[in-house]
Design goal:
By secondary structure, the chain is of the alpha+beta class. It folds into three domains: about 40 residues; about 80 residues; about 70 residues, no CATH class. The protein is built from four helices and eight strands. The strands form two sheets. It has a six-stranded antiparallel sheet. Strands 1-2 form a two-stranded antiparallel sheet. The longest helix has 12 residues. About 15% of the residues are buried.
Length: about 200
């Protein structure tokens, strides 16, 4: 029942199977082996889409009660925030006119009706997340379990929080002459982005 597999890290593989029943069977079988941890990611149980131009005065509950996805089950609504700069202050986040929909299944409708008005949907791609402590992908600094922090410029282990890098730039991931957090130069960031697109 296995159709394909993709290695996403040294210890993680995404396996594609024919059906949800096949996925459940595989997870159950692998659970009997202590060497493997298998699960069905939420991204394979649900799809996410965005709907624009939704008035911020509507609550998530009002939207969910008045949205019609026809044959698609819309499970949850999230209001996305946007970043704004405040004079004489740091930036803050305020509600935007864009909402994210969590839809049960493996496909999304091309449109929905909200208060009987048709709105076009776009597929939502999860952002690439990188830890600014250990520089690895897949988690944030607040969730990092590693003890040693890395310099994002030269990739050395930081001796203190006041580290001022004077070394030549060296990427932690590809050893290139750029910062490990460079989205435009690092091929690892491109690879992580492609993985997110595969999960659409």
């Amino acid at each position: 029942d296995v159709l394909d597999y993709t290695r996403v890290s040294r210890t993680k593989v995404i396996v594609q199977v024919k059906s949800l029943q096949s996925a459940n069977k595989l997870v159950t079988e692998l659970a009997t082996h202590n060497l493997y941890k298998a699960y069905i990611p939420a991204t394979y149980l649900y799809k996410y889409a965005i709907l624009r131009d939704v008035d911020v005065d509507f609550t998530n509950e009002e939207i969910l009660d008045n949205i019609d996805g026809k044959n698609f089950k819309i499970v949850e609504i999230y209001r996305l925030n946007r970043k704004v700069n405040v004079e004489n202050s740091s930036a803050k986040y305020v509600p935007s006119n864009t909402i994210k929909l969590r839809i049960a299944g493996q496909s999304i409708p091309s449109y929905v009706y909200l208060f009987h008005v048709r709105g076009e949907l776009e597929a939502y791609m999860q952002p690439v997340i990188q830890c600014f402590k250990c520089l690895q992908y897949g988690h944030t600094s607040s969730k990092c379990t590693r003890n040693d922090a890395k310099c994002r410029d030269c990739s050395c282990t930081l001796s203190s929080e006041e580290h001022q890098c004077t070394s030549a730039k060296k990427c932690f991931h590809c050893q290139g002459g750029h910062s490990a957090t460079s989205k435009n130069l690092c091929p690892e960031f491109s690879r992580q982005s492609k993985i997110k697109k595969l999960m659409l």
